[in-house]
Amino acid sequence: MAGVHRGVTAPFYDVRALVIDENYAMLVSDIFGNVPWPTKTNCHLRLWGHGIGRHSVAQVEALQNDAVEAFEARLEGRIYFHGDENPSEIELILAAFLQSGLVKKSWNPHWTGLSLKSPNIVAFTRRITESLFPEYEAMIDELNDAR
Predict the structure, then answer these.
(1) How do the domains of the chain map onto residue ranges?
(2) Which of 45, 67, 92, 95 would give a disulfide with 128, using CB separation of 3.0 to 4.6 Å?
(3) What pLDDT digit, counting tens, does each position of 72-84 carry?
C-alpha cells in the first residue's frame, strides 16, 4: 500500500515541469491570464517555499515511473482500487489526474505517455470516463486507441 500512496502523490511532483521548465510561459498564459506581474513572479518563490519544485527532472520522472508501476500493480485484476463494486474517492481523484493529462498533454508529457502505455491504467480511465463522462468522446477514442 505504501507504493500506492506514493503513486497517488507523484503527479504533484511534476509541478516543477509546469511552473519552472519550458511550460512556464504556457502555464502563466493559461492560468494567470491578466494577473499582475508581481503575482506571477512570486509564484516560483511561493511554490519553492512550500517544498514544491525541488526535484530534478530525472527525479520527477523516476517518481512518475514508480507511480505508474504502483497503479498498474494495484489495479491488476480489479475494476477499482478498493474492490469491484463502486468507485471511491481515490478513483475519482486518479481519474481526474489521468483525464487532465489527456486534455493538456503538454503539461506533463512524460506522465501521459507512461499512463497510455499501461493497460490497467488505460482500462481504468476508460471505465471511469465512459461511466461518468460519456460526452468525452474524443478522450474515450484516444483511450480505445491506446489499447
Answers:
(1) 2-145
(2) 95
(3) 999 998 888 887 7
